[in-house]
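ligand=pyridoxal-5'-phosphate
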Amino acid sequence: MKIPFFNLKRQYGLLQAELEQAVLASMRACTFIEGDDVKALETELAAYLKVKHAITCGNGTDALKIALKALGVHAGDEVITTPFTFFASAEAIAAVGGVPVFVDIDPVTLNLDPARLEAAITTRTRGIMPVHIFGVPADMASINTIARQYKLFVLEDACQAIGADVCGKKAGTLGDAGCFSFYPTKNLAAFGDGGMICTDRDDIATVCRALKAHGSGRNGAHAARLLGHTTDGEELNALGLGDGLYDPCKYYNYLIGDNSRLDSIQAAVLRVKLRHLEKLTQKRGAIAARYTQALADTPLCLPPLHLPDTSQCWHQYCVLAPDKDALTADLNAAGIGTGAFYPVPLHLQKAFQYLGYRKDDLPVAEAACARSVCLPVFPELKPEEQDEIVSIIRRHYGLADLTA
Ligand SMILES: Cc1ncc(COP(=O)(O)O)c(C=O)c1O
């Protein structure tokens, strides 16, 4: 039986009628950029996350870069983050001129270990970027306490964590700002790239909105004032509002920003999928619970099923295997797709060589990279497919087949 690591066509098939109607309507509206679907999506996402501002943008990497700039990261500022994440988390810090400082992870949640945070704080530290890896929320209570004590910002990389929550508050809304990715394999996925920043802070929202669109117009002038650039933007007063299609203020720029906008067709897709997100997250949770039950007596270190006051969104089901390569080879030979997230911890990536980290500097993250195997957990995985995956793993470890 061939079982892919994820299968985007299945979800498309299930939601086809709704998706195609929404995309067609969006095309017919011809407001391709920042159109009605984008505005509606932002309202719906803000309501879903119970947050004041949801600001869509081109992708999750841009979301991180824009938010870091809005939070005031300048050249040489240090931002503490985890080495056990996708490259973009730390790449964004470096891309805005900051210096990523890696702190080792907790062996259970695989997230930034707050017990090691204080030792990494220096006079140049500006903020902390926890990543809710695989959809498991980081220990935000401890991270926020330390951040408050040292007057640091907290930017959550929630790119893998839409739908996860802590004490009833959604991941991505627990710090000063949170960033999301709508990459096609994410739990809430576009038909291309997409991203979002969310925040309860009006000042950060204003600056993010300006930075994602060339720092232009009234919002650009307002953002520039917030950032301490002296501008009154008075020249805009005489320009009027335009006709809705042509905004005369758009061509007056106050900040060096970017072009990072979500297009309306992607927003239309995301609006449909958002309506199904909770149900699909529950399906992921049910698949995860089945794995945990069926693999409990194997030598695998399984992901935590229940963490206090926390619900995770199961972006990945990641097991730590003592024999990662052999297990992966057996699964792949049987036609089962697996994910190796992540083969190299970020402090040992060649691109970050200049930071001067060495092997064994962050042993928990290094051990996780050496052992992690992600199993298929997409919501449309069929029970008989999951049985097959479980059987192969049990056979690999010489255990009795549960379905026999
Ligand atoms: C943890 C994490 N951060 C950042 C990103 C970047 O998001 P995007 O691919 O939308 O730029 C991703 C996406 O893969 C991610 O998983």
